[in-house]
Amino acid sequence: MATTTFSGPVVSTNGFDGAVGGNTPAAVSATTLTTTGAVTINGTTVVISSLPTSDPSVAGQLYNNAGVLTVSAG
């Protein structure tokens, strides 16, 4: 299988076959993800490591506020 790079959304009515093995359901959509820590998605579990522990003062950025996932107002 060849490697192809896309710069916009990709849609498939029959799913995707990728390096992770097997078919990925067509319900999966591509988004932008930028991280300096690890983000793990396994079924219905999402783990985000290395979140800031104080308000980063960047609107929309997540941070760990004493164990409570919080979105900064900026």
Task: Give the helices and strands, then pairings.
Blueprint: E1 16-17, E2 23-24, E3 39-42, E4 45-48, E5 62-65, E6 68-71
Antiparallel strand pairs: 1-2, 3-4, 5-6
Summarize the structure in words.
- The protein is mostly beta strands and 74 residues long.
- The protein has one domain (16-71).
- Helix content is 0%, strand content 27%.
- The protein contains no helices and 6 strands.
- The protein has strands at residues 16-17, 23-24, 39-42, 45-48, 62-65, 68-71.
- Strands 1-2 form a two-stranded antiparallel ribbon.
- Strand 3 and strand 4 form a beta hairpin.
- The protein starts with 15 loop residues before the first strand and ends with a strand.
- The model has no long low-confidence stretch (mean pLDDT 74).
**Annotation field: number of helices:** 0
SSE ordering: EEEEEE
Strand share of the residues? Answer: 25-35%
Radius of gyration: 16 Å
Number of strands: 6
Structural class: mainly beta
- With strands numbered from the N-terminus, the spatial order across the biggest sheet is 1-2
Q: First CA to last CA: what distance?
A: 44 Å
Helix content: under 10%
Tell me the overall shape.
elongated
